[in-house]
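Reviewer comment 2.1 asked that we show a complete input and output for one of the modelled complexes. We chose the pyridoxal-5'-phosphate case, as it is the one discussed in the main text.
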Amino acid sequence: MNPKPDTAAVTAGRPPQLVGKPVVTPVHREVTHEFASAAEFAAVMEDASRGYLYSRIRSPNTDELAAAVAALENAEAAHCFASGMAAISAGLELLAPAGVRVIAARQLYGQTYSLLRARGDTAFVDATDTEAVRAALHGAGLLYVETIANPQLTVPDLPAVIAAAHAAGARVMVDNTIATPIGCRPLEHGADLVVHSATKFLNGHADVLAGVAAGSAELIALLAERALDTGATLGPDAAWLVRRGLKTLHLRIERSAANAGRIAAYLDGHPRVTVARYPGLAGDVSHAVAGRLLNSPGGLVVFDVGGERAGAFAVMDACRLCVRATSLGGVETSISHPASTSHRQLSADELEAASLSEGTLRLSVGIEHVDDLLADLAAALA
Ligand code: PLP
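Response of the prediction step:
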């Protein structure tokens, strides 16, 4: 029977089942799947047969990305979210619902800091001071830290603070965005949940917004259920891009960290720089812990040119190769001013407590030739 044009417009041209399969998973833009029978449909709905129903639940692309991140983080399971903040809020709602006291690092990404501050029952401590963390944990249900803090680049003694939290009956959530699983796998040190802004190094190309949480199958199943309610689902195109980016994560981190090490050493000796921070620098406050904990000190470098905002802006404006942009973890080197961008939510006192100033600049070091980057910074600081 020849369908009428209205019907053909909807149904014609569907491909037959083929022998062989693509080497790379295609982008699965379909929202819904068709079944041969009502019984098959019901079996997939009940999880009795493996299949896909509706892309707010799961899609082949988010499943592939989740499985890849779980493998990299050595986790039982992972779940993808529409952004890093969506993964963080979902994790916080699950592990610290209203009424549960949170102890959080003072050294955190600005949006996470303001999210935790808004709860009203969060106490912020210097996460590099294990005794201060231990002392604060009494009565807390959750400890929240970043493996390498953005942008202080401090590294908490993860095994020690995790053990202290567990001894106090608290669970531990770790944002592993800056360290990446190439640098550290917090679950292996006992963390309960790891979260990522996959927008950053996991994807690596500044062209997608995404988040992932990884942990036990039990916790991830609960998170997935909540994501179904809130709809903070990652779309298939974004999942596909992050999965592709992940393939070169180790190579990009290796190159970024090698470049960052050279740049940090240069800045550390520069007369205009009052402080250079990089966990790989011998004199850095976190060098010893980083040496024990991290397989790579990562691709971020922070430096302070002292003085007012105008001095830091002048350095940024003089850069020709480093791009003036927020975010981080892309293949291009970017420079930003945390006090006016990622940490603008902090008051002057909070900035000081977080070891940031109007003269602080953050570099996310990319994979360009290091000589070109050093020349750009030398000219900007001249
Ligand atoms: N965590 C860290 C350490 C970040 O740097 C960021 C963003 O800069 C986020 C979380 C939030 O991620 P997203 O922008 O993907 O929501």
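The pocket of pyridoxal-5'-phosphate is lined by residues 83-85, 109, 111-112, 146, 150, 175, 177-178, 197, 199, 209, 211, 327 (CB under 6 Å). We note this here for comparison with the apo prediction described in Section 3.2.
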